[in-house]
Amino acid sequence: EEADRLVATTGDTAKADGFDLVARQVNRLGQLVGEVSNALTFVRSTIEASPDAILVLDDQNAVMLGNRAASRLFSETPDPVGLTLADLYLNQCVTVDPEQAEIAMRDGRAFLFASAPLAGTLKKGRASRILAFRDISEIRRRQRENDELIEFLSHDMRSPQVAIMALAAELGALTRVSSALRSSRIRSQAQLTLGLADGFVQLARVREVGADFESHNLAFLLQEAVDRCHAPAMAKGITLERDIPDDLVFADIDPGQISRMAGNLIGNAVKYTQYGGRVIISLAKCKSA
What we know:
10 helices; elongated; 18% strand; 52% helix; 10 strands; alpha+beta
């Protein structure tokens, strides 16, 4: 009877050989069991080969099967079989957003999840649904970058432009501010805008094509960065103390990007140091661990 049911389900029409009825039935049942075994092996292999993390859950929402990708995703639980999905989330400190069908890991990774019921009559303790997790960490990273870009364009780039427009409007009105001072302010704001735009272009270039590494003297590069910050430091009475070796200190770097970084760091130090303070710029070789 079981063999007949399996034949009706699978459509198997394999010939059964034998000398009597029992032999033919045994032969046919053996072939059907082999087909079912092969089918299960195929399903397991397909799940295992998937790049997405996949879990098979029973009617109690407990894990019955998981692939290697799922083991890597829920690495805090070496053997998830028998545990509920809530247990896995708790062990991994996962944050779940059911509305977006998304989970967030504590290391910053993000995954979309989707589930589908398994076909067949549901019985207690049997597989109920399959759950898949798709890594969207890179998508979320790019979204954050886009949000930062919008914030940059809406605030940092707008501020000096508004100042330029206000100062330009003063040119046609009577004001106590001299023309020379107005021109100086306009020039300062224009230079700030140009610097912001250039910085954005340079950042976009590095993200797209990478850095251009070459052997360069870090000591000379840092001395130049300090020199560029000399005027604003003098205006606040800030002392720039240099602890930079006279010897050549070569390293494989992108000179333009490192020069910009050093200038920004020293410039911010000058900007946020109180009047009459001091900023120390040092360069030293770190001991390898």
